[in-house]
Specification:
The complex is a heterodimer. By secondary structure, chain A is mainly alpha-helical. Chain A has a domain of 119 residues: AhpD-like (Up-down Bundle), CATH 1.20.1290.10. Chain B is an all-alpha fold. Chain B has ten helices and no strands. In chain B, helix 4 packs antiparallel against helix 5. Chain B starts with 13 loop residues before the first helix and ends with a helix. The longest helix of chain B has 24 residues. The chains are: A mainly alpha, B mainly alpha. At the A-B interface, helix 3 and helix 9 of A face helix 3 and helix 9 of B.
């Protein structure tokens, strides 16, 4: 199943185990994605630092999860779809909004523009047309927002490509948050 | 002409100016890309954290520059080709080797396996064929390094997509992608 196996905490070097523990405190579990990245301390550190920086950006957490779902969908990453449905649920985003985001849709104009821009960035590898960029600007996407959107595309590509390469096993159900005290 | 503006040091908030200074101490200059990212505090911090952490891995610096050149070539990013050709020169990598790397070739069999894996990661969005992964492993590339290679691909997709979106003005001796040069 896995092409690269997760590295369990008890086999991991101390610095890697400490990173796992930080994730556990945030999410209450250490996803296979993290434990598989743990085979490369530098890469796990890189992913977590990028994640932490973007968590302090302008884009709200609900939109960040929606971007993650859309990008995972476009990249065919089932693992990332599962994890971001779970985290989106944990944040209280209604399931129908998560499903809509996966399909590239939002009920909010600004969020819609961010999703459209992310899709255009992926489809054109950044070479977004003048029309698409102008549409985003009209909908209130600032240059700062656009920069953050690209950063999210890159971070999600990291997780998408990595879990596709490693064939990381999905370790919680989509409705994990609703499962009563699961495991 | 940039589509996302440069934030020069005198207009940047102090936190951003400090980051520019840190880049300048390391590279001797603050590339336009960094000053364009500077419009987003989280975007710039995210990029620098990602790039700093990835550089702490076990892949050799010159191999990482070759990966950067190959990915930039595949994504037709002239800004990144120009920047990484200049950095590769500073690292004393012969210019013929830098040119071969852009075409995905290396005189070294292990580096060749790495460049082949990079190309497939980009082209299959991570879903690389077993045979390519086996080739990399036979050439002595371990799991940790395979993960680092994915991290380097993500790092370079970040800058490729960002510079293509931002239309960052090139502030290194111009190198055009084979795609652009022949178009």
């Amino acid at each position: 199943m896995h092409r690269i196996h997760p590295l369990p905490a008890h086999q991991a070097p101390e610095t890697v185990a400490a990173l796992y523990e930080a994730v556990r405190q945030d999410l209450s579990l250490v996803p296979n994605l993290i434990r598989t990245l743990g085979n490369s301390r530098a890469s796990l550190d890189a992913y977590l630092k990028l994640y932490a920086s973007l968590a302090n950006g302008n884009l709200p957490s609900s939109l960040r999860e929606k971007l993650a779902l859309r990008i995972a969908k476009l990249n065919g990453c089932d693992y990332c779809l599962a994890i971001h449905h779970a985290i989106g649920g944990m944040l209280g985003v209604p399931e129908k909004e998560l499903v809509a985001a996966e399909g590239g849709l939002s009920f909010d104009t600004w969020e819609q523009a961010a999703l459209d821009l992310a899709e255009a960035v992926l489809a054109t590898r950044g070479n977004v047309s003048a029309d698409s960029y102008a549409a985003a600007t009209r909908a209130g996407i600032t240059p700062e927002d656009a920069t953050e959107v690209v950063a999210h595309v890159a971070m999600n590509i990291f997780a998408n490509y990595f879990t596709r390469l490693a064939q990381t096993k999905i370790d919680f159900p989509r409705n994990w948050v609703n499962a009563p005290a699961a495991a | 002409m940039n589509r996302i503006p440069i934030i020069s040091r005198d207009k940047a908030p102090s936190g951003i100016a400090d980051l520019y200074d840190a880049v300048k101490r390391k590279l001797g200059l603050v590339p336009n890309m960094v000053q364009v990212l500077g419009g987003s505090s989280s975007g710039l911090k995210g990029y620098l954290a990602l790039s700093g952490a990835v550089s702490e891995g076990t892949l050799e610096t010159r191999t990482r520059e070759k990966i950067a050149l190959r990915v930039a070539e595949l994504n037709d990013c002239n800004y990144c080709l120009s920047a990484h050709t200049a950095i590769g020169g500073l690292l004393k990598v012969p210019s013929e080797e830098l040119e071969s790397a852009r075409a995905g070739e290396s005189p070294d069999s292990r580096e060749q396996a790495i460049l082949d894996l990079v190309e497939l990661i980009v082209k299959t969005r991570g879903d690389v064929p077993d045979a390519i992964l086996d080739d990399a492993r036979s050439a002595g590339v371990g799991n940790g390094e395979i993960i680092e290679i994915v991290a380097n691909v993500a790092l370079n997709l970040f800058t490729n997509y960002f510079n293509r979106l931002a239309r960052t003005e090139i502030d290194f001796p111009l190198v055009r992608s084979l795609e652009t040069a022949t178009a």
